[in-house]
Structures are given as structure tokens and as C-alpha cells.
Amino acid sequence: xxxxxxxxxxxxxxxxxxxxxxxxxxxxxxxxxxxxxxxxxxxxxxxxxxxxxxxxxxxxxxxxxxxxxxxxxxxxxxxxxxxxxxxxxxxxxxxxxxxxxxxxxxxxxxxxxxxxxxxxxxxxxxxxxxxxxxxxxxxxx
Length: 141
Prior knowledge:
86% of the residues lie in helices and 0% in strands. It has 141 residues and is an all-alpha fold. It has a domain at 15-107. Helix 1 packs antiparallel against helix 2 (73-115). The longest helix has 66 residues, at 2-67. The model has no long low-confidence stretch (mean pLDDT 80). Residues 76-103 form a coiled coil. Keywords: Coiled coil.
């Protein structure tokens, strides 16, 4: 009788250790995803800032180009070249920004999967959560 109980206790202790290891692995995965997401968000913000700066510069050069009709042809060509270079840079940064946005969406999906937020049970409860009267004020779902 005592032997069976000791074996059962040993089995349960092994299972607890296994579950703790699985939990630790999941926590490491979540931390890795969190770090990757914060890096992607920072890069996205940097590219957004560059895009805004370049867009303003393109507007300025467009205005200069509109006013350069009174200037000589060499200056006009120089400004047109600069304007085309800036437009190419804006296209490049927009493409990069779109890539970062896709990366962020993919990482958010992975994070949702890790936390189990993309299961049918969560989706089915979404309507009920919107109608709850006891949820915390200011919490948007």
C-alpha cells in the first residue's frame, strides 16, 4: 500500500516538474515575442518619422520647383533631380513601413496564439464581453 502511494507521489512530482519546465519554456517564448515586437514597433516608429520628414521635404522641393520657372534651366534640372530622388526615397520608406506593419501584425498573431486568444472559444465570447455590465470602466475590448 505504501509502495503504491510513494510511486504515485513520485509520478505526480515528475508531472509537476514537467509542467514547470513547459511553463518556463512558454514564458521564455512570450518574452522573446515581446522583445521582438518592441524592436519592430521601434523600427516602425523610426521609419514613420523618416517618412514624415521626407514627405515635408518633398513638399518643400515641389514648391521650389513650382517657383523655379523664373530661374535658369540648370537650377530647374537640379531641383527636378532632387525631387525625383526624394520621391524615390519616400517610396522606399513607404515600402519599408508596409513591411514593418506586416511584421508587427504577424508578431501580434503569434503573441495571440501563444496566449490562446485566437481560439474559437475566445471568438465566441467576444459578443458577450461587449455586453457585460460588470467590466471595468474604460476597458475597451
